[in-house]
Amino acid sequence: MKCQQQRLENDFTELSKFGPLENGGFTRLAFSREDVAARGWLQKKMEDAGLEVRIDAFGNISGRRKGLSALPAVVMGSHLDTVPEGGNYDGAVGVLAGLEVIRTLNDNNLETKRPIEVINFSAEESSRFGMATMGSKALAGKFDLDTLNKLVDKNGTSLYQALKECGYAADEIASVTIEPGQIHAFMEMHIEQGPVLEMQGLPIGIVTSIAAPTRFKVSIEGRADHSGNTPMAIRKDALTGASELILGVERIASKEAGEKTVGTIGYLYVTPGAMNVVPGKVELGIDIRDVNMGDKDKAVKAVIELMDAIAERRGLKISYQQLCNDEPVALSDKIIKTLKDAADKLQLPSLIMPSGAGHDAMNMARLTDTGMIFIPSVGGISHNIAELSNMADIYAGTEVLLQATLQLAQE
Ligand SMILES: [Zn+2]
C-alpha cells in the first residue's frame, strides 16, 4: 500500500492559494480571513474523502474515518495557520499528510479496527494572540471564557470575538476539553525547522522529547549622560551591562549548562537611543530552552546570578519578570518504537532526536500516547518566506505515518 505523491503535492499547490504574498511567503494568521478560507478548503477535502467532519467551539477541525469498532481513535494532525511572512510547510505538512494517509486507506478499501482522525488545530502560532498551540491547549482543558476574553490581538480584538466572527461557538468552550483515554494515540508530522536532518543527510527524524522555554523580560537601568562630558569611570551604561549579559547567556547555554541547552536574547530596546547619549535603560528578553528540566534549571540559576553580579559591579539596577517556566515533555516510548519500526520497514534511515520548538504534540502528550515525525527543512530555515521542504521528504514522512497508523489502528 502506497500514498500518492502527486495527490499530496497537489494539496500543497491548492493550499498555496490561501495567504500568498508577493515575496513568495505566506501569511495565514490564526482566525484571519486567509486562515478561515484555508479551513473551508480543508473541510471540503475531508468531506471529499468521506470523513465525518466536526468543528469544536475553538474551531479545531477534525475529520473521522469510521473503524470496525467504536474504540478510541488514532489521531494525526497539526496546523494550517502561519506566522506573518512564513512558509507553506510549517504545520501544513502534518495536516495534509494525515489526510493523505486516510485517502490511501480509502483507495485500498482497508478497514481498521479503530477509527482514524485527522485534525487541524486552531491558532498554533503565537503571532496573533501571544500564546502558542492554543487549539491543542483547548483540548487539554486550558481555556475558559475568561481567558478567551483576556487574550487580545494588537487591534484590540479578543480571542472570544475572533472565534465568534469565524462562527465558532466560543461560549461553549468547556465542551472542547477531552479526557485522557478518549484518544488511543496521537501523531504529528512536522518540518524540523532546524538543520540537523539535512546536515546528516537523513529523511526522517523521530522525536523523543519537546524542549520547553523559560523566559524573562529584563529591565536594566543605569543613567543617561552626555557622551562627551561623562568620564568612562563614572558611567552607568545600561547597554554595556546588557552586552555582558548577552555574551554571558551565550556562554552559559553553550558551555556551562546541559549539552542541549540553548539560550537566546532576541530583542533589545535601548533608551534614549541616541548616538551622543550614554544608554540609560535597556529592555531585553531572554529565552532559555532545554529538553532536560535539570539542565534548564541550572542555566536559569546561572543567568540570574549573572544578572545580580553585573548589577552590583556596574552599579546598575537590573530587574526581571519570569514570563514562563515550562516543563519539557517526553513523548511516548511506544509511539517512538512504532515510528522507528515503520521507518526501518520502509528502509528509510532515521534519527532519534529532540525537538527544540514547541508543538501541539506537547499538549496531546498529556492526553494520550503521542509521537512526532520530523522531515528535513531545506537550509534549516522556517518561520521565514524561504521555508522549504522537499516533496520527496514529505512523501517519505507520510509513508512512515501511514505504516504507524496502520499498526496503531489495529490494536
Ligand atoms: Zn508548526
Automatic annotation (TrEMBL):
<keyword id="KW-0862">Zinc</keyword>
<feature type="binding site">
    <location>
        <position position="190"/>
    </location>
    <ligand>
        <name>Zn(2+) 1</name>
    </ligand>
</feature>
<feature type="binding site">
    <location>
        <position position="90"/>
    </location>
    <ligand>
        <name>Zn(2+) 1</name>
    </ligand>
</feature>
<keyword id="KW-0378">Hydrolase</keyword>
<dbReference type="Pfam" id="PF07687">
    <property type="entry name" value="M20_dimer"/>
</dbReference>
<dbReference type="Pfam" id="PF01546">
    <property type="entry name" value="Peptidase_M20"/>
</dbReference>
<feature type="binding site">
    <location>
        <position position="90"/>
    </location>
    <ligand>
        <name>Zn(2+) 2</name>
    </ligand>
</feature>
<dbReference type="InterPro" id="IPR010158">
    <property type="entry name" value="Amidase_Cbmase"/>
</dbReference>
<protein>
    <submittedName>
        <fullName>N-carbamoyl-L-amino-acid hydrolase</fullName>
    </submittedName>
</protein>
<feature type="domain" description="Peptidase M20 dimerisation">
    <location>
        <begin position="215"/>
        <end position="312"/>
    </location>
</feature>
<keyword id="KW-0479">Metal-binding</keyword>
<feature type="binding site">
    <location>
        <position position="215"/>
    </location>
    <ligand>
        <name>allantoate</name>
    </ligand>
</feature>
<dbReference type="GO" id="GO:0016813">
    <property type="term" value="F:hydrolase activity, acting on carbon-nitrogen (but not peptide) bonds, in linear amidines"/>
</dbReference>
<feature type="binding site">
    <location>
        <position position="289"/>
    </location>
    <ligand>
        <name>allantoate</name>
    </ligand>
</feature>
<dbReference type="GO" id="GO:0046872">
    <property type="term" value="F:metal ion binding"/>
</dbReference>
<feature type="binding site">
    <location>
        <position position="79"/>
    </location>
    <ligand>
        <name>Zn(2+) 1</name>
    </ligand>
</feature>
<dbReference type="InterPro" id="IPR002933">
    <property type="entry name" value="Peptidase_M20"/>
</dbReference>
<comment type="similarity">
    <text>Belongs to the peptidase M20 family.</text>
</comment>
<feature type="binding site">
    <location>
        <position position="276"/>
    </location>
    <ligand>
        <name>allantoate</name>
    </ligand>
</feature>
<feature type="binding site">
    <location>
        <position position="125"/>
    </location>
    <ligand>
        <name>Zn(2+) 2</name>
    </ligand>
</feature>
<feature type="binding site">
    <location>
        <position position="383"/>
    </location>
    <ligand>
        <name>Zn(2+) 2</name>
    </ligand>
</feature>
<dbReference type="InterPro" id="IPR036264">
    <property type="entry name" value="Bact_exopeptidase_dim_dom"/>
</dbReference>
<dbReference type="InterPro" id="IPR011650">
    <property type="entry name" value="Peptidase_M20_dimer"/>
</dbReference>
